[in-house]
Amino acid sequence: MSARLMDGRFSEGFNTLELLARVENFDDRLAAAIRSQNGAGAEVAVEAMRDALLGGTNRQFLDLVEERMTPDERAKLLAHPEVIDGMFAAMRQHTLFQLIQGYFNKPADQLARVNELRHERGWGILDVWLIEAEKSVPTWPKGQLQIVQLVPYLDDVKKGPKGYLRTFHELWQVAAKQQHANWRWDGYDKANPEKLRLLKGIEHKPGLRWEVIDLGCNRNEKPMDVRNPDLSPHAGILAAAALHPEWIKAMDGVNVPYVFVPGYEVSVSDEDSWQDVPRVHFNRGDRGIELHYDWYGIDYSYWAVPSFVRE
Question: What's the pTM value of the predicted model, to 2 decimals?
Fold first, then answer.
């Protein structure tokens, strides 16, 4: 076999083939192709060698690059490899490489943004709260739509809104400004304890806290069946909308579901008092975020009822 390998197109690659024969994915197909030495078999041999050496994912990546570069561009890159550093630097600035799962800002970026917002909007977030939050970041969970979320809980305002209402309005306003367009049910504009309240058993405590939330769970579930004060987030969902605008833009009801905000209750009218739940939706036509409500006894495949992730 060695004598035949030294002939023709394989003579220069004998050492490569010798090494190749030692790799785990060297198989009968590759051996047969090499023995055939010419014609179509030689082409199969080349492809088989690439598959064995590169593996499926690496091969796909190289094919992708080759399709987008001319031979002249490839030659220039080989002659000036320092250009590749600039290419990688530009790539890493892209949103896809900056965000977790392509949607979510890292905890450090959330801390930086909340620090900006507390000054811009007069939130009253204390320095000590930020310092403590920096020291207590939870481990990011593994699920694609499970997140570590920094949530500001604002204090009451004298002769003004209760803390939970202030938090609701402030986070919505920040979230709304991140998108091309925004809309919310006008009942929220004048929301007060008679229109919006926390789910019974949830207590509003001013501060700055991390929450681990699953934004994709409980699809096809009625909010009334799966929510409870220990597991149902409220301000955390609006904080996610405010601090992760790319998550909102990605909502399509299929890969990224729209979400209920199960820790709140809405009273639309006296007839169905406290039977509705806020919900956050992205309108792809208007490219805008929407804050509406729906009945707590309805379920959709394209809507999630988020829940805290507990260890």
Answer: 0.72
Q: Are 185 and 262 in contact (CB under 8 A)?
A: no
Would you state the structure tokens that stand for residue 118, as one six-digit string? Answer: 């507390």
Q: How far apart are the C-alpha atoms of 279 and 300, rounded to whole Å? A: 12
List, in sequence order, the alpha helices (H) in the chain: 2-5, 14-20, 28-36, 40-67, 71-79, 82-93, 95-98, 107-120, 127-135, 163-177, 186-189, 223-226, 235-243, 245-250
Walking along the chain (311 residues) 10 residues at a time, the average pLDDT comes out as 44 50 54 57 62 65 73 77 70 60 93 98 96 97 95 92 95 97 90 89 97 97 97 98 97 97 93 91 95 96 96 69
Q: How many Cβ atoms are within 10 Å of 129's Cβ, its own excluded?
A: 18
User: Rounded to whole angstroms, how far apart are CA atoms 132 and 152?
Assistant: 13
Dihedral angle, C-alpha 128, 205, 157, 194, nearest 10 °: 160
- Which tokens is 211 given? 């929450």
What is the spatial distance between Cα 16 and Cα 161, in angstroms, rounded to a whole number?
A: 74
